[in-house]
Amino acid sequence: MVQYAFVIKNFSPLDFKVKILHSTYGKITCAYPKDSQAKLLTIGSLIVCNIELIGRRYSFSYLDIIYSPMTQDLEKLEFFHQIMLICLRLLPDNVQVDDIFIFLMDVYKNNIILTLYNKKSILLRLFFLSEIFEQDVQIYKLAMQDPFIEGLSDSRLIDKYLDIGFHILYQQKNLEN
User: Fold this and answer.
1) Which candidate, 67, 106, 135, places its Cα nearest to that of 121?
2) How many Å separate Cα 138 from the centre of its chain?
3) Which pTM was predicted?
4) In this structure, which CATH number among 2.40.50.140, 2.60.40.420, 2.10.109.10, 3.50.50.60 belongs to the domain 3-67?
5) Which of 10, 61, 137, 150 is spaced 20 to 30 Å from 121 by Cα?
6) Backbone phi, then psi, for 16, in 5-degree steps?
Protein backbone atom coordinates (compact mmCIF):
# COMPACT_ATOMS: atom_id res chain seq x y z
CA MET A 1 0.00 0.00 0.00
CA VAL A 2 1.38 3.41 -1.02
CA GLN A 3 1.80 5.85 1.89
CA TYR A 4 3.49 9.14 2.74
CA ALA A 5 6.89 9.56 4.39
CA PHE A 6 9.40 12.32 5.13
CA VAL A 7 13.11 11.86 4.50
CA ILE A 8 14.95 12.75 7.70
CA LYS A 9 18.44 11.50 6.77
CA ASN A 10 20.14 10.38 3.58
CA PHE A 11 23.19 8.12 3.88
CA SER A 12 24.11 8.54 0.20
CA PRO A 13 26.67 8.37 -1.39
CA LEU A 14 28.25 6.10 1.23
CA ASP A 15 25.29 3.78 1.52
CA PHE A 16 22.08 3.22 -0.43
CA LYS A 17 19.61 3.91 2.35
CA VAL A 18 17.62 6.71 3.93
CA LYS A 19 16.04 7.24 7.31
CA ILE A 20 12.40 8.20 6.91
CA LEU A 21 9.44 9.11 9.08
CA HIS A 22 6.77 6.83 7.65
CA SER A 23 3.05 7.34 8.27
CA THR A 24 2.61 3.75 9.50
CA TYR A 25 6.01 2.44 10.58
CA GLY A 26 7.37 5.60 12.21
CA LYS A 27 11.09 6.35 12.00
CA ILE A 28 12.78 3.57 10.01
CA THR A 29 15.81 3.04 7.81
CA CYS A 30 14.95 2.00 4.29
CA ALA A 31 17.32 0.61 1.64
CA TYR A 32 17.08 1.22 -2.08
CA PRO A 33 18.84 -0.12 -5.21
CA LYS A 34 21.73 1.84 -6.74
CA ASP A 35 19.72 2.88 -9.79
CA SER A 36 16.70 4.08 -7.80
CA GLN A 37 15.45 7.68 -7.87
CA ALA A 38 15.87 7.51 -4.08
CA LYS A 39 19.44 8.70 -4.62
CA LEU A 40 17.86 12.09 -5.48
CA LEU A 41 16.18 12.38 -2.09
CA THR A 42 17.15 15.31 0.08
CA ILE A 43 16.59 15.84 3.77
CA GLY A 44 13.07 17.13 4.17
CA SER A 45 11.67 15.51 1.02
CA LEU A 46 8.04 14.39 1.16
CA ILE A 47 7.55 11.11 -0.67
CA VAL A 48 4.92 8.51 -1.40
CA CYS A 49 6.23 4.99 -1.16
CA ASN A 50 5.52 1.35 -0.71
CA ILE A 51 7.72 -0.36 1.86
CA GLU A 52 8.59 -4.05 2.03
CA LEU A 53 10.10 -5.79 5.02
CA ILE A 54 12.67 -8.30 3.79
CA GLY A 55 14.14 -10.19 6.72
CA ARG A 56 14.81 -7.39 9.18
CA ARG A 57 15.40 -4.67 6.58
CA TYR A 58 12.94 -2.29 5.01
CA SER A 59 13.25 -1.45 1.33
CA PHE A 60 11.29 0.59 -1.19
CA SER A 61 9.20 -1.33 -3.72
CA TYR A 62 7.78 1.97 -5.00
CA LEU A 63 8.89 5.57 -4.52
CA ASP A 64 7.82 8.95 -5.88
CA ILE A 65 9.07 12.34 -4.71
CA ILE A 66 6.18 14.72 -3.99
CA TYR A 67 8.12 17.69 -2.61
CA SER A 68 11.76 18.44 -2.07
CA PRO A 69 12.81 21.59 -0.19
CA MET A 70 15.20 22.77 -2.90
CA THR A 71 15.32 26.52 -2.56
CA GLN A 72 17.69 29.46 -2.47
CA ASP A 73 15.93 30.64 0.71
CA LEU A 74 18.47 29.71 3.39
CA GLU A 75 16.04 30.49 6.21
CA LYS A 76 13.52 28.01 4.76
CA LEU A 77 16.23 25.34 4.31
CA GLU A 78 17.37 25.83 7.90
CA PHE A 79 13.76 25.51 9.08
CA PHE A 80 13.24 22.18 7.27
CA HIS A 81 16.62 20.98 8.53
CA GLN A 82 15.62 21.82 12.12
CA ILE A 83 12.34 19.91 11.75
CA MET A 84 14.09 16.83 10.39
CA LEU A 85 16.83 17.04 13.04
CA ILE A 86 14.20 17.06 15.80
CA CYS A 87 12.57 13.99 14.21
CA LEU A 88 15.90 12.22 13.75
CA ARG A 89 17.17 12.82 17.29
CA LEU A 90 14.03 12.79 19.43
CA LEU A 91 11.57 10.32 17.91
CA PRO A 92 11.83 6.62 18.75
CA ASP A 93 12.57 4.07 16.03
CA ASN A 94 9.76 1.86 14.69
CA VAL A 95 6.95 3.65 16.55
CA GLN A 96 4.02 5.21 14.72
CA VAL A 97 3.66 8.88 15.71
CA ASP A 98 0.35 9.94 14.17
CA ASP A 99 0.12 13.30 15.93
CA ILE A 100 3.55 14.38 14.70
CA PHE A 101 3.07 12.97 11.21
CA ILE A 102 -0.29 14.73 10.72
CA PHE A 103 1.16 17.96 12.10
CA LEU A 104 4.10 17.80 9.67
CA MET A 105 1.71 17.22 6.75
CA ASP A 106 -0.09 20.44 7.76
CA VAL A 107 3.23 22.28 7.96
CA TYR A 108 4.17 21.15 4.46
CA LYS A 109 0.78 22.21 3.08
CA ASN A 110 1.27 25.71 4.54
CA ASN A 111 5.04 26.12 4.10
CA ILE A 112 4.84 28.89 1.48
CA ILE A 113 3.22 31.43 3.80
CA LEU A 114 5.15 30.87 7.05
CA THR A 115 6.55 33.84 8.93
CA LEU A 116 9.40 33.64 11.45
CA TYR A 117 6.82 33.61 14.26
CA ASN A 118 4.95 30.70 12.59
CA LYS A 119 8.20 28.74 12.19
CA LYS A 120 9.11 29.23 15.84
CA SER A 121 5.62 28.12 16.91
CA ILE A 122 5.90 25.03 14.71
CA LEU A 123 9.29 24.06 16.13
CA LEU A 124 7.98 24.55 19.66
CA ARG A 125 4.97 22.31 18.94
CA LEU A 126 7.31 19.67 17.49
CA PHE A 127 9.50 19.75 20.61
CA PHE A 128 6.37 19.49 22.75
CA LEU A 129 4.96 16.55 20.77
CA SER A 130 8.38 14.87 21.07
CA GLU A 131 7.81 14.94 24.85
CA ILE A 132 11.06 16.60 25.89
CA PHE A 133 9.44 19.14 28.21
CA GLU A 134 8.11 18.54 31.71
CA GLN A 135 4.34 18.83 32.14
CA ASP A 136 3.67 22.56 32.35
CA VAL A 137 0.48 24.52 31.64
CA GLN A 138 2.36 27.51 30.18
CA ILE A 139 4.30 25.48 27.62
CA TYR A 140 1.19 23.46 26.78
CA LYS A 141 -0.69 26.68 25.95
CA LEU A 142 2.22 27.98 23.86
CA ALA A 143 2.84 24.75 21.99
CA MET A 144 -0.77 23.89 21.28
CA GLN A 145 -1.84 27.28 19.90
CA ASP A 146 -2.50 27.42 16.17
CA PRO A 147 1.02 27.89 14.75
CA PHE A 148 -0.37 29.32 11.51
CA ILE A 149 -1.94 32.36 13.20
CA GLU A 150 0.47 35.23 13.77
CA GLY A 151 1.17 36.70 17.20
CA LEU A 152 -1.01 34.66 19.57
CA SER A 153 1.73 34.58 22.23
CA ASP A 154 4.78 36.45 23.38
CA SER A 155 7.59 35.66 20.97
CA ARG A 156 10.20 36.01 23.75
CA LEU A 157 8.52 33.23 25.71
CA ILE A 158 8.52 30.99 22.63
CA ASP A 159 12.23 31.82 22.13
CA LYS A 160 12.94 30.84 25.76
CA TYR A 161 11.39 27.39 25.30
CA LEU A 162 13.01 26.92 21.88
CA ASP A 163 16.41 27.61 23.48
CA ILE A 164 15.66 24.91 26.06
CA GLY A 165 14.48 22.50 23.34
CA PHE A 166 17.55 22.99 21.15
CA HIS A 167 19.82 22.71 24.19
CA ILE A 168 18.26 19.31 24.99
CA LEU A 169 18.47 18.30 21.32
CA TYR A 170 22.18 19.11 21.04
CA GLN A 171 22.92 17.53 24.42
CA GLN A 172 21.37 14.31 23.15
CA LYS A 173 23.37 14.57 19.91
CA ASN A 174 26.60 14.90 21.89
CA LEU A 175 25.70 11.85 24.00
CA GLU A 176 25.34 9.77 20.82
CA ASN A 177 28.79 10.79 19.52
Assistant:
1) 106
2) 24
3) 0.90
4) 2.40.50.140
5) 10
6) -95, 70
